[in-house]
Amino acid sequence: MASAASSDPFIRFAKESDVPTILSLIYELAAYEHASSSVLATESSLRSTLSFPSSDRSGYARTLLIFPPSTTTTTTTPIPPSSEQPAAEPECAGLALYFTNYSTWRATPGIYLEDLFVRPQYRGRGYGKLLLAELAKEVKRIGGGRLDWSVLKWNEPSLRFYESLGAKRMDEWVGMRVEDEEEDGEQGALSRLAEGGKGVSWDA
Asked: Is 162 one of the catalytic residues?
């Protein structure tokens, strides 16, 4: 008799083959935040901009995926080692998509968490805390000093959860953003601002 099971959830970096799952989770998060129409990401754009293990291409962000414990499977006939197949992964329960930032006052790197999302059916199991713990460990690994992210003001359940982990509200700061969305048929603010730049070569 052979059986295989894991009683703990597991976390791994997303591979390029996980892009459809990442995009699906992004849409689910956007729906939760009432902003589905704002999602412009595609599988192609994610593949060209994200970093993946064992890839020669360097992207701009990394993704952690969390999976629930695998289901125990039992067979009455022993399985020869030569015919064993890798167990199929269970449905992905959530993700943490992040990139590095930098603190000039500390002169240390850090991590900015762009998206943290756990599917509704997997909430209440500590998966969000596990993902944040992995990010905190990564901050320490790179010699960083802090982990940053933004939360919608109306999302009080998330705010309370984060505060329970030691996070502090940065109420004295106001987020600013320049985007490239067209405004009444005119070019976006980012394009207008970029017209004033002369272009600086990194290799110069």
From this structure: yes
